[in-house]
Amino acid sequence: MISLTANNKEPKGLDSRLFKDRLFKVVVFIFAFITISPIVLIIYKLIIKGYKQINLSFFTETAPDTYEAMIALSNNEVIPGGILNGITGTLLMVVLASVMAIPIGLLIGIFLYENSTKRYANIVRDITDILQGVPSIVLGLIAYFWVVKSITNGFSALAGSTALGIMMLPLIIRSTEETLKMIPETIKEAGMALGVPYHKILLRVLIPTGFSGLLTGILLAISRIIGETAPLMLTALGSMGVNYNIEKPTSAVPLLIWEFYNDPNMVDLIWSSSLLLMGFVLLLNLISKHIMAKRA
Amino acid sequence: MNELIKQIKDPVLSIQNLSVSYNKGKYAVSDVSAGIKKNRVTAIMGPSGCGKSTLLRAINRMHDLYPNIETIGQIFLNGEDTSTMSNIMLRRKIGMVFQHPNPFPTMSIYDNVIAGYKLNGIRMKKAERDEIVEKSLKDVVLWDEVKDSLTKKGTFLSGGQQQRLCIARALAFRPDVVLLDEPTSALDPVATKKVEELLIELKKQYTIILVTHNMSQAARISDYSMFMYLGELVEYGKTKNMFINPVDKRTEEYLTGKFS
Amino acid sequence: MWNSEKITKTLLFLASLIIVLITSGMVLSLMNGAIPVFKEFGINFIFSAEWNPTEGREDYGALSFIAGTLITSVIAIFICFPLAFSTSLFVGEYYRGTRLAKIVGTMVDMLAGIPSIVYGLWGFYVLRPLIVDLGFNSQGFGIFTAGIILAIMIIPYATSISTEIIKMVPNNLKEAAYSLGATRKDVILSVIIPNARSGIFTSYILAFGRALGETMAVTMLIGNTNLIPKSIFDTGNTMASVIANQFGEADGLKLSALIAIGLLLFVITGLINGVGKLLIKARL
Prior knowledge:
The complex is a heterotrimer of chains A (296), B (260) and C (284).
Chain A: H1 14-50, H2 56-60, H3 66-74, H4 84-114, H5 119-133, H6 136-148, H7 157-182, H8 185-193, H9 198-209, H10 211-225, H11 230-233, H12 253-262, H13 269-295
Chain B: H1 2-7, E1 13-23, E2 26-36, E3 41-45, H2 52-59, E4 70-77, E5 80-81, H3 87-93, E6 94-97, H4 109-113, H5 115-119, H6 126-139, H7 143-146, H8 159-171, E7 177-181, H9 189-202, E8 207-211, H10 215-221, E9 224-229, E10 232-238, H11 239-244, H12 249-255
Parallel strand pairs in B: 3-8, 3-9, 6-7, 7-8
Antiparallel strand pairs in B: 1-2, 1-4, 4-5, 9-10
Helix pairs in contact in B: 6-8, 8-9
Chain C: H1 4-41, H2 44-47, E1 51-52, E2 59-60, H3 63-94, H4 99-113, H5 116-133, H6 143-168, H7 171-179, H8 184-213, H9 216-221, H10 239-246, H11 252-283
Helix pairs in contact in C: 1-11, 3-4, 3-6, 3-8, 4-6, 5-6, 6-8, 7-8, 8-11, 10-11
């Protein structure tokens, strides 16, 4: 007969078990702390190194050339100029990409919502997921072929925004579908019961009801593309001046950072430009979080 | 009230001035004192929200898992103040069965029965483990049904079988007291009957505390009954006496279905 | 007769064709662009580590870049796992539902918002000198440095799904384990992890897929040499970084080789993401 009374004496290893439990917790906490430290370190570095450079001319003047920067450096002065060409270029391409991606993305998102269980819709959803997983550099290659080689016969804002637009598309499609799925079926049925035409239910009921969700999806998609560099190197290339011609090469803030990084005379400008870019991304994220919080 | 605590001689479990609050100042259980008789089934009943589950979960300190719950008062197990024991020890001496059958879905039937030993890092010889599994499953009258499928996942069993497996899991440590939190509320009538018969059988070896919202269940299987209302222990006595001749008006109203 | 419903539905259907066309067009364009190099070297392009753009002796193989991509991504996953998983436990178990969990979760999400090039800069000016100081290699560039920065970049992707899955482990299973005398560590190891296993695995598959295609930060830190790395402190190139690095000066056969690498990258990331998606579906 074996003893089944193991429970009645304090187990020998109790202290060591409690110690192991505490040790496990401490290790988890330390690793979690390490995980959040890069975000603090990165933002700290950008602010410390970048804030000095940010002034009015930073937003109103184009990037200096390497000669101007060299003279400023040798005189121990702040490097002149700003990143106006980058800011305008980024705005131009983001607007263009949005014009291309948002309407189509919303339509496809609605399509998936309306046909959620159909076979073809599942295929479209899978394709959307594939597209979302495609590395941005590959999208740069594609835009190079489709636009640089075929339409604008040279590097151009249009090519850059094509790459960015394709990148936005799956993000908007999925956020649209997810937003619409959250709308109670009864709201749609109420419209149907009143005999409202189908397109009016979409335009007057579903889209207004889900508006904040759709807007959040769009803002997050923009925040994802705004810092993209690699695809633009293959498509928009960059330019010294402000350019609004979509068929011409165009700069962008991340492209300028890349140029500054590669030019020893201008390397001091990377921090302020990165700070601005990062600030913009975080602002977009903050706004979308705020919109979501308000809705909930 | 206090009379009855004195009546129960050598209580295996003695609850003294126990209060539990979820938010500071709001008591789900207030100032409950009671002794629990060894080798008997004690039922805790009352309308939903009366604090019966809260009281039960205070006994094995499940409330410690949730930082905002505050428990005050004392509980003695075999005369020993449980506040001097670690949660680990206390919970090994007091087993628990939950409202919904919850066998560990990633473990086999066999592993579910000895899960307590595994979780506590207790190593045993295979023969020893086999014996514990067999004995525990026989205790809950599940052995014949599952002895050929011990390596299968416990989640393949029917709801009633799963609940008996969970009882076996709680019994594997040979606890002094078994707490059951509405163990049949998720079961069909046939499975419920089996569990009830099992509890009557088990009280020969164990002390059982059963929370139930089902008065007739309490009448069928319990020896002692507590009636709780708004966090208070209103009445506590032999089940037979309480059902025939309740002392408190609220108990009478509850038992006659004036509220539920 | 065309009514509004039919017109709207047709419009939605036509829109859905666009994404099908874009994606299939992408595959066709990449394949078309890759034809010359596959005609020249055949399947050997994938298995050769030669990369010689000298005119007349041109020889291109993708193996060293495939190796670089896989090795950096594997390093990233190994570094990422303890960090991201601990964070998931912190947010999804230890401090579940608290303000602190929300703050930590938000900070981790912010990592996903940092542009790749900013990671590259930080890696170059902060991480690389650290690698030099630690004596791993003299310049601080290489597979290992790139792997660390990749690990940080994929943390938010690995963390978010894992945290949700960990939160989804039913409370009554955890309580059952506690009622048997388990400690929190026992509950995590014996209840939470076994129940969340497949979901956790999936989140690291998807994070791995992310790491494969990251370009700028890797390009700035990996050292950009066209050789198969022999140790994790060697320099190298990934498929994405070689495209970013050499595209500007490429034409003819070299351009075709870079496009072929883009195609391979597309296929590999597609496969990894496909596996991840299947795993999610199998779970639900």
